[in-house]
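Example 3.2
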Amino acid sequence: MLRREFIYIWYYFELQLYQIFWYWVLGMAIGSFVSVFAKDRIHKLFSGMQEKQWGLLGIIPACLLGIASPLCMYGTIPIAASFRRSGMREDWISAFMMASILLNPQLIIYSAALGIKALAVRIACCFFCGLAAGLLVFFFYRNKDFFNFDGFEAPGSRDKHPNLFIRYLLNFWRNLKATGLYFLLGILLSALFQRYASQRMMADIFGGNSAFGILMMATLGVPLYACGGGTIPILQEWLLNGMSLGSAAAFMITGPATKITNLGALKIAMGWKRFMLYIIFVMIFAFISGTLVNMCLRP
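Structure, written as tokens:
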């Protein structure tokens, strides 16, 4: 009995691994390339925006550069702190940080495994979430400080090897170590789900245009999200089993936005009051986004 169950689970594991493995490898390859060869250029472009008289419109390129940045939140906050000390507007910084939390080049490639429509929804939701964050800071904290970056210093680069090829390989290896376990765990959970979960249950709870399904996935994104690569196999299986794209969009917003490592860094930079406002904003935006996605992409 146990042997038969193991064979079933291994079959689903191998099938899911075959479907998504190369997206994971390509995502790491591109993420490492951006980190080694383009990261400094991206941050210089953002820093150079201070010379532009773009006003509130500056949140648009700030969002785009945030999505392009390969840094995790613990790397983004010290960079943002250095931008703030040099006089950059806080609404631009908010847009940059929010977009950077939600998406990066590596995660974009991972998400392509979900299909073009799901990828487009993820990019659009992350971009508009960054815009919304920048607008809210502009209108409600225009004459007040939103962030407290005291004690944050710009991090030193870990990509220092004089040989560019070896530097790239070392960065790729760090990516592999950081995401490999979560990726395999995500594949395993997806295989277990395929074996034991009911497809009809997923369609009933998370399918269609149910506001309950969107709210539940927005909530589940808080405890379940650990690594972008690890959640892609699970999301792929959920979508195949009837989850609406709106529910998936809600999960893809609250997941990275409330990832435990991100929350720790944001709590330090915001303080309790603004940190709680951030959590409320993420939950509301995820619910509204999921609802709009289901309305616009109704089957």
